[in-house]
Amino acid sequence: MNDLTQAQDFQDTVEQINQIPAVKKILEVICTTTGMGFATVARVTKDRWIACAINDQINFGLGVGGELKVGTTLCQQVMDDRKEVVIDHVAEDPIYSNHPTPRMYGLQSYISIPIFLTNGDFFGTLCAIDPNPALLNNDKTISMFKLFAELISFHLESLQNLNETQAKLLEEQSNAEIREQFIAILGHDLRNPVGAISSAAQLMFRTSLDDKNLKLAKIIHDSTIRVSRLIDNILDFASGRLGGGIALNFDNDKSLEETLQQVITELRTVYPEREISADLNLAYPIKGDYKRIAQLFSNLLGNAITHGSKDTPIIVKAKSESDFFELCVINRGNKISQETEKHLFKPFSRGKVHQGKEGLGLGLYIASEIANAHQGKILVTSTDQETCFTFQLNQNLSENL
């Protein structure tokens, strides 16, 4: 550790100790209980002694952050021996009566208790001094100091753990934001080339093509539709994660029935081998973002095509009443397990998919987010016979949007 880093480490420690409200009270209790005039929590290493918190009633002259040469203190002995030093009366003490430290600082009474972190590392000392004798070397006083030292250690480590957790959280949030911004920018920049490919495919349809090239043009066109949906899901996912959520626009240029029929037509074109049976009974208009509902519907219908049985039709039912709207997508196929159902609407969660039908696992998540934005919900029922995804919207609730 270089000098600059070490200095910052000591400064952080001083700040952390002074963030613990109990420390000030502990030092006050020590002085009141023992009658001593100076008490401190000191950070002690082999090279330095730093006062982190102080209660000074004798004008000792050392402030918070003040430093003593560690070699001139008895705290160095506490650190080396990992045990307390307690002196009631220096002049009468057979060990310390001629010791240079008491003479240098004018001490007659002294107590220093080591502070250990829970991993056993030595942190520093809780100590008190006074120019007059005091009754310190007894079980009651020493036990009190040890209890206070343990309390300081507990609070210090709790604060350090909290700061480390907060720092890691901020770092993760920053990394997540960068990732999601990258996804949003990437998705946005992909629109232009995909649009160009789609336009080129449509121009090819207007020319004379043999069966082979017509098939290739259709593959290109159908793939651009699928990629466009993936881009939409990526952008919506990034938008939701970055805090914007799913945006709704109620300025609809088509009816809801026309919008849903358009989705069915598109998917019938992309998957001509799949039968889609639709029963749309939309007698009442609803308040909602029809393009978003179409996106929700497209994701549910695409999911049914991917996971449903190829030999049976997919059934679409929609109905609206004066205060209620419901859209159901039903397919036959394997039952969704209870464990899989728990994760269906989580991002990047996918069930087993057929080769060539792989996706990002965002479709159902985006559909759920669109439903939530409308204050609606998506229900799932799955049996050995069929699976049904149902989007329900209470009109009374949607009117508050």
Task: Tell me what the structure shows.
It comes from Chryseobacterium aquaeductus. One of its GO terms (biological process) is osmosensory signaling via phosphorelay pathway. InterPro entries: BphY/WalK/GraS-like, GAF, GAF-like_dom_sf, HATPase_C_sf, HATPase_dom, His_kinase_dom, HisK_dim/P_dom, HisK_dim/P_sf. The protein has about 400 residues and is of the alpha+beta class. It folds into two domains: about 5-165, GAF domain (Beta-Lactamase); about 245-400, Heat Shock Protein 90 (2-Layer Sandwich). It is about 50% helix and about 20% strand. The protein contains eleven helices and eleven strands. The chain has helices spanning about 5-20, 20-35, 75-80, 100-105, 140-205, 210-240, 255-270, 290-305, 340, 365-375, 395-400, and strands at about 40-45, 50-55, 65-70, 85, 110-115, 120-130, 275-280, 315-320, 325-330, 375-380, 385-395. The strands form two sheets. Strands 3-2-1-6-5-4 form a six-stranded antiparallel beta sheet, sandwiched between helices. A five-stranded mixed beta sheet has the order 7-8-9-11-10. Strand 10 (about 375-380) and strand 11 (about 385-395) form a beta hairpin. Helix 6 (about 210-240) crosses helix 10. The longest helix has about 70 residues, at about 140-205. The radius of gyration is 37 Å and the shape is elongated. The relative contact order is 0.07.
Write a brief structural summary.
The chain has 401 residues and is of the alpha+beta class. The chain has eleven helices and eleven strands.
Keywords:
single chain; 401 residues; alpha+beta; Beta-Lactamase; Heat Shock Protein 90; six-stranded antiparallel sheet; 11 helices; 11 strands; 48% helix; elongated; ATP-binding; ATP binding
